[in-house]
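Hey all, sorry for the wall of text incoming. These are the two entities for the joint prediction.
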Amino acid sequence: MIEQVSQALMFPFLFLSMYFQVLLLFSFFENKKKIKNEESLTVTRYPTVTIAVPCWNEEKTLGGTIDSLLALEYPKDKLRIMVVDNNSSDSTVAIATEYSKQYPDIVEVYVEKKQGKHHAVNLALEKTLAELFGCLDADSFVAPKALLTIVAYFEHHPEAKAVTPCIHIRNPKTFIQRLQAIEYLMGVFLRKAFGQLDAIQVTPGPFSIFKKEVFDQIGGYRKAHNTEDYEITLRMHKNRLKVMNSHKALVYTVGPSTLRGYFYQRLRWARGFLENSLDYKELFFKKEYGNFGMFTLPMAFLFVFYGLYAAFFAFYTAVSHYVNVLDRWASVGIHPKIPTFDFFYFNTTITAFVVMVMFTMFLITLYLGNELSDDRQEIYHNFPFFFFLYPIIVPFFLGRAVFDTFTKRKNEWVLQDTKNSSS
Amino acid sequence: MIDTKKYLFTFFVTVAIFTTAFFASTYFSSKRVESVKSIQDTIAIDILSSETQFDLLKEVPCQNVNHSMLSLELNIIGDKLSHTENERGENDEDVVYLKKYYSLLQVKDYLLSKKLAEKCGAIKKPVFIIYFYSNEGDCPDCKKEGYVLTRLKEKYPELRVYSFDYNLDLSIIDSLKAIYRVESALPALVVEDKMYTGYKSIEDMEALLPDTLKVAELASSTASTTPTKKTK
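and here's what came out:
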């Protein structure tokens, strides 16, 4: 009885998940020509740009981050790099100062004593006079054409108030980084497809570029449960400011290299998603906020809970199966047999067919993500890590995030844990 | 802006995929039932043929009556039926029909094998177990007993196990229950015409089996493991 009820409850989840997938694929293919045309957009006017690099003990990667910004194909008299140190105890400030001496017209160094990324970025916002403002985390690196590609969007789409880039994991080596490589590749497609619905969920920390007027209108960054980039996007949607995606603006970020680091980063993101979504609950199911308010935000919120339910269901099914196997072994001992192949025993339930279609659609989104980006990823090498580990890890951080959110548990220490495991 | 048409189109596409999945699943499921039924029909013909040969025994020598493969086929069909029951549910009309058919075939096979063994004096005399189970949740040990019997069948090829759903509404099962005085205490096992109730482990069951079966098994395993001597 329990099995039948829980199985029946899975159908609405499967239906909604498939609906979501179909909607994204449809929105993508419907605008394929438009997306292709975006690739040939050119720049005739170069607006001034400030890129803030908030730092907190970034001595290992800061040099590379600044070098990648200096290598941007953009007039140097229009570009400012503001390194904002946030109480680093390593040689971050010394490295940044060295760059500012070498490139006094481009690199500026500031110190923000108030702890928190949002304080650091807001200091840069106070100092800048540029038309465009962006942020690049000090563990991320930009491709030379990234800024030019994004600026082209602002020129050809005056309604665009922010443009997000295409993010890849930099040199994925460990199994958890390989898993993230696939996750980010999925993100490449999702961001583009959400963009077609005017429903981009987040302007990510690495190299999302905003018109400075956005901050003048809606204010600077907030602490926002340690996910300031999600909160600013919600605020933009609330003020009906358009966010676009430039799929050719390549940015590389260093993903957490350990399971622990990954877990705490995702826990922070998931908690931030839940808390901020609840803070902006007035956006839910409101027509004036378009597809974002009516569909994608409520669906994403619902999927956190349905995802947990699906995980519980899968876990229950797997445990029942293995309990039976153990029961058999306990009764008659272990007698391995050579498995025989018989079509008769193929799973031909509705769920099996639906899951098969959804999995195929997921593979298509990965393929499309890879095609969109100029940098092809090693799908075949990385996919097994994603396929086998992702479904196991996700329920843990989602479950914990839901628990922490509803018990109002403090999680400031999560930031430190993420940091220690990133390099 | 919300494009209602897009949402509706997506809805219809999703419904179409689900409907296709539903029809595909129904199609394959009915094919599966058909395949079980077709094997059962073949077994029915084989049993009828063996019975007819048996009736002609006075004119036909014993070795011409070929019945040894039937029990094996019944085992295979039993596994498939059990898989179909798990997938479609025990109350599914087709499943109930197939189970009744299967139960009848088992009884016929049991009677015929018994007669053949007696009259023809088989070299490896088969040993019979009749097993009554229930999968309505009132027999917690039935699943374990099933594992034990499956293992015994693998170990002793001459062992013939006939399984009957205690709750199946079929007069032949009622007759068997009456003959062996099977009450509601399950699992119930009839080994060499003696009734036992309650869970019997693999060791308990082996103690109940006649020695001839174990000797035959030992002989065949020794033959298969003894290396052949090289001749000089």
